[in-house]
Amino acid sequence: MSQRSTFDKIFHIIRTSLNGEQRDYTRGSLSKAIFLLAIPMILELSMESVFAVVDIFFVSKLGQHAIATVGLTESVISLVYSIAIGLSTAATAVVARRIGEKDPEAASHAAAQSIIISLIATLFVSILGVVFAGNILSLMGADSRVVNEGAIFTKIMFGGSLAIMLLFLINGIFRGAGDAAMAMKSLWFASIMNIILCPVFIHYFGLKGAAIATVIGRTAGVLYQCYHLFRGKGVIRLKAIHFNYDPKLLKSIIVIAWPATLQFFINSGSWIFLTRLVAETGGTAASAGYQLAIRNFIFFLLPVWGLSNAAATLVGQNLGAKDPQRAEQSVYMTARYSAFLMGVIMFIFIFLPDFIMRIYTNDENIIRYGTLTLRWFGSANIFYGISMVMMQALNGAGDTRTPTIINFFCFWLFQIPLAYILAYHFHLKATGAFIAVPVAETSIALVAWYYFKKGKWKTISV
Cβ of 355: how many Cβ atoms within 10 Å? Predict the structure, then answer.
């Protein structure tokens, strides 16, 4: 009877979290609040990772040059993700703080102002990406065939940057408002569209079909978001007046957003360097194996990102409600859940990487490099889980500068030099890049934990 009661309670929490009911996360059970926010966030990001895996599955049938093109393009377009995530982080922090203060009108105004900033930022990035697509692939170390065949893919992906930007940003607004279910539904809608269109478009248009399907799917997701922002019944309802020029608020959002953008830019820049290093030292097979492994790594990592986003929302709303102790408790509790989940995933990466890689390809060279990547990355999974929660908690408090500084030192001044030294001076080649990642991520977890415990984030004004 007790066991049945436990299952009923779990089922009730899952059902409640997916209903999208407006709740007050500044009161009541913390563990329940974490799960009510995290479940839709995990499902939201899991669907995005499912699409990434499905996408690379179909692209892999076109050969290793197609895999390399997608991987290299995604590595560079991650700079667009950096801007999108930076703005999304700022929107989550400001909206969550206003919701915690019980001021939904101010939250809606902040949401509208963040959208204005995103539109301006996207225009610049899109033009550069479309014009210099071929040059971008060349700079990433792609061979001439990858450049010739992949330039159109890269142009389409950069041309659709607005869809990426708004999809991330608006979901950040929903998460800050505590409406994680709506963020989940919009990304599910976009990803399901992608999954349906991807094989069809690849069949008729080849590699560029994958890019077209992605842009269409994400655009559909943005339209779904906009409908609920302007016409929905949620706590955030945008009106024309919310888009009136507000220099003070725009400045406040930018002050939070630029370090967050730089933070993820630093992260992305490090991944770009590693991607190039793998391509240079291991060749196309190493690059393809690395890219397949990365997609699967993200597949398992994004659910923990969902937990981290839950921590960010709880920190923002509880600081707005003037309850820093509850904000702190929510982070420690989320970190424990995240470490446990990543411990389970670590087992899969260390003992079953060969099985995972053979789902996508029979090329033994690609499988060998992909297996090495998953094993090395998986060795630090628990630290990934902890670092993600701590860093997002600081971001959720509006302290985006501290994670940025941590990323700069641990990625650019530690991970990149270490990868280079291992690859060239110790003659480990691509394996050197694989080893550098878990070492750097472990250092990030320890440093982020230290700065979170210091507690300065509790005094940040948003």
Answer: 10
Closest-CA residue to 260 (of 404, 413, 445): 404
Neighbours of 427 (CB within 10 A): 10
Q: Consecutive 10-residue runs of the chain (462 residues): their mean pLDDT?
A: 62 77 85 90 77 75 78 75 88 95 94 93 85 81 76 87 91 93 90 89 88 92 94 87 93 92 85 88 88 83 86 96 95 95 93 91 90 94 94 95 95 95 94 93 96 94 86
Residue type, 117: I
What is the per-residue pLDDT for 6?
64
Of the candidates 283, 250, 296, the one whose C-alpha atom is nearest the C-alpha of residue 116 is: 250
Judge whether 202 and 210 are in contact, CB under 8 Å. yes
Q: What is the pLDDT of residue 368?
A: 93
112: tokens are 């509208």
How far is residue 2's CA from residue 6's CA, in Å, rounded to a whole number?
6
Task: Check: CB of residue 211 under 8 Å from CB of residue 197.
Answer: no
> What pLDDT is stored for residue 5 in this prediction?
66
